[in-house]
Design a protein that fits this description.
By secondary structure, the protein is mainly α. It has one domain (3-288). Helix content is 77%, strand content 0%.
């Protein structure tokens, strides 16, 4: 392992580790501060953080060049909608004792991405990946039919993040510059919503405690920091390695769900068992091809 790959692995561990402990951030807010307001501020302050970073590094001009391509802008606007939905659902799930199901969504996500690749990118699957997707599907069906509780949160998280990834995969924009444009496109709406909440007494940026204000402002770092680390890692390590490290986040979230007192029924454990079995096959296939597939 050379130094470049080692640095990429460290960056990936920190990125997914950061995402794994994100529930602590949401649970730090006092009662009365809702997921919608938190999501608004996370997106808005991400724009501010990226504006400062790109302005400092001299990459702001490159980001604005994206506006020369209307098709790219349209795609980024659509991707913004999906990632905003993802962030909102996740924040709501964590703050309403549904972290277990949220972690299930991110366990499903890699296998959902495989299915999206087949449907939209006409990718070919080998037997291992077909089995992996089949096991995940059986797990979801078990949750719907046997348990009788459709995992809507998990499915919506996997769907929204999967579609976001698909859109970003097909658009000609770097990760950091693309995220800046995404937040810029919705900045007026975000600002308007925040101002409206403050004027109607439901916001906490003006009237909230100093600790609450600090949490809202640092929301931008909770998006920009791990995504920057992820983008750095993705260009330096094999896809197989990145695919394995990504399980740090949902695994940590699952552990925190148990720590926070959420419980699992036998049927839900069976659902997780099928999903984990599918991920095991998927991971096996990634490692089987290790050294031949890289993220470009």
């Amino acid at each position: 392992m050379d130094n470049t790959e080692r640095q990429g692995i460290i960056a990936a561990i920190f990125a997914f580790g950061f995402w794994g402990v994100m529930p602590f951030y949401f649970r730090a807010f006092p009662g009365g501060v809702g997921a919608f307001e938190i999501t608004l501020h996370r997106i808005g302050w991400t724009f501010v953080v990226l504006l400062a970073i790109l302005g400092t590094t001299g990459d702001l001009t490159q980001a604005f060049r994206i506006f020369r391509n209307p098709r790219v802008i349209a795609t980024l606007f659509l991707s913004t909608i999906f990632i905003a939905i993802n962030w909102l659902i996740y924040a709501w799930a964590v703050m309403n004792q549904h972290l277990t199901e949220a972690s299930l969504g991110y366990f499903i996500n890699p296998l959902f991405n495989v299915a999206l690749g087949v449907v939209f990118l006409r990718e070919k699957l080998n037997i291992w990946r077909w089995l992996a997707v089949a096991l995940a599907a059986i797990g979801v069906l078990n949750q719907i039919i046997i348990v009788g509780e459709p995992p809507w949160i998990a499915l919506l998280l996997a769907f929204s993040f999967g579609i976001y990834g698909l859109l970003r995969k097909t658009v000609a924009a770097e990760a950091r510059e693309g995220l800046f444009v995404e937040t810029l496109l919705v900045a007026p709406l975000i600002l308007g919503a925040i101002v409206w909440m403050e004027m109607h007494g439901s916001g906490h940026m003006v009237s909230g405690a100093i600790s609450t204000k600090a949490l809202l402002v640092t929301g931008g770092l909770t998006i920009a920091a791990p995504l920057t680390l992820f983008a750095y890692a993705a260009r330096r390590i094999p896809l197989s390695t990145l695919g394995l490290i990504q399980y740090i986040a949902p695994s940590a979230q699952f552990g925190l769900a148990i720590y926070f007192g959420e419980t699992l029924s036998l049927g839900a454990l069976i659902t997780f068992g099928f999903i984990w079995a599918g991920l095991a096959l998927y991971t096996f296939d990634l490692w089987r091809k290790r050294g031949t597939v890289h993220v470009s």
